[in-house]
Amino acid sequence: MVGTQLSRMLADQRVRPDALSAFALARRAFMEGRRLEMQELAAELGVSRATVFRWVGSRDELLVEVIWSLTEPTLRRAVSAAEGLRGSARLVSVMGAFAEATIDSPSFMGFVQREPERALRLLTTRASWYQSRLAGAVEQLLREETEAGAMTPPLPMHDLAYLMLRIVEAFVYADLIAGETPDPTKVRQAMGVLLRE
Questions:
Q1: What percent of the chain has pLDDT above 70?
Q2: Is pLDDT above 70 for 52?
Q3: DSSP-based three-state secondary structure for 2
Q4: Exposure string (b/e) for 71-88, b if CB count within 10 Å is 16 or more?
Q5: What phi-psi label fits residue 23: left (phi over 0), alpha (psi between -120 and 50 degrees) or beta?
Q6: Helix 116-124 crosses helix 130-147 at what angle (to 10 degrees)?
Q7: Res 2 pLDDT > 90
Q8: I need a surface site. Which of 67, 74, 99, 103 has the fewest CB within 10 A?
Q9: Domains of the chain, with CATH numbers?
């Protein structure tokens, strides 16, 4: 083998599984529509289940990290698609596009259909940090529009961000909550009413 002892050790280091390897495999499984199983993940990595838990925490914690890794770029794309819009129109566009992309995601909606109770608990309650982080991102969008003088929020920003998120949840998870069909158009309509667009 060519190279120094250190270079061989560093090369060796790169092929060893670690928390990032576990995350990458979990993300791939999620995107392929497979149920995330910690035992399978450990076997694929060639480590014990206890090691995987030590690296990534619980199955729920790993799921939330994986879902957030897909949510964040989805929200960024929705924001980019609203370029040129200001105030309420921008927020209605962003939230509608975000809801539409979420509903159109086979991996995300597959997870929601496979594990509805877990999905609602992890994504819409304080059981994880997911909802608060997403509400924080929405609150930041509100702050940008308010500080630019493009809108005057009808409620305190924190409360308004939470309500906007609840509207998205109501129509994205409509099949679980009310037996209705998920509908991003209703998100846009409700946001328009709320934000007085």
A1: 92
A2: yes
A3: coil
A4: beebbeebbeebeeeebb
A5: alpha
A6: 40
A7: no
A8: 74
A9: 5-56 (no CATH), 59-194 (1.10.357)
Burial class (CB in 10 A: 0-12, 13-18, 19+), 139: buried
Please spell the DSSP secondary structure of 110-141, one letter per residue. HHHHHSHHHHHHHHHSTTSSHHHHHHHHHHHH
Q: What's this model's pTM, rounded to 2 decimal places?
A: 0.89
Check if the beta carbon of residue 36 is closer than 8 Å to that of residue 30: yes
Q: Which two tokens stand for residue 62?
A: 């790993």
Provide the token pair at 11: 């090369």
Closest by CA position to 172, among listed 101, 76, 86, 89: 101
User: Distance between CA atoms of 120 and 155, rounded to whole angstroms?
Assistant: 26
Element (H, E) at 31: helix 19-31
Residue 14: pLDDT over 80: no
